[in-house]
Specification:
The protein has helices spanning 23-37, 39-42, 67-76, 92-99, 119-129, 133-143, 172-181; strands at residues 46-51, 80-85, 150-153, 156-159, 163-164. By secondary structure, it is α+β, with helices and mostly antiparallel strands. The chain folds into 2 domains: 18-107, no CATH class; 114-181, no CATH class. A hairpin with a 3-residue loop joins strand 4 (156-159) and strand 5. The two termini are 15 Å apart.
Length: 183
């Protein structure tokens, strides 16, 4: 949640073995899956993961863990977060998404396309590109033909999807998130 708004949703079908996991392990599996999916956004940030299962919110602090839980704990250790319980009755959005098949389309994340970017934001991206050393290094590699997974379009770095690479410098990423999720 960012300022009370969900930032993204993620889901996948459980494997045969996963369907037999205990409820708290399924909750934790969901957390592990989401953190893997959003790793590049979450590393280096402090955040809270809200789960609707009380036991799941404490599972990683138990003195004895199963081998599976220990593997998950090792994976989760690279993130700066904590699990917080949020009762299902108060978690209407997640509850609705997990229970209503007709809302399956909402579970998919649609990245912001370049066509939806206003001129002001396009200029901000270009301005912030110059302040981001990592981005400048990638741009040089693209221009020299060393990277095939990126290309430059309208002075902006693009990657598969096509998705726009947004510089880390400044408040631009936060501004884009607010613009996309507050509308």
């Amino acid at each position: 949640m960012q300022e009370g708004h969900p930032v993204a949703f993620e889901s996948r079908k459980l494997s045969g073995a996963e369907t037999r996991y205990a409820t708290q392990e399924k909750e934790l599996l969901a957390v592990v899956h989401c953190l893997r999916a959003w790793r590049h956004y979450l590393l280096g940030s402090k955040f809270v993961v809200k789960v609707d299962n009380t036991t799941a919110s404490h599972i990683l602090t138990q003195p004895k863990l199963s081998a599976r839980q220990a593997r998950w704990q090792e994976h989760l250790a690279e993130f700066d977060f904590y699990l917080e319980h949020k009762a299902g009755k108060k978690n209407h959005v997640a509850d609705a998404l997990s229970r209503r098949a007709d809302l399956a389309a909402l579970r998919r994340i649609t990245p912001m396309s370049a066509s939806r970017v206003t001129n002001d934001i396009h200029e901000l991206i270009i301005e912030n590109m110059k302040k981001d050393p990592q981005m400048m290094a990638i741009m040089k590699m693209v221009e020299s033909g060393q990277l095939k997974t990126f290309w430059i379009e309208n002075e902006v770095l693009m990657t598969k999807g096509p998705r726009m690479y947004v510089p880390r410098a400044g408040e631009l990423r936060q501004k884009l998130l607010r613009e996309c999720h507050d509308t």
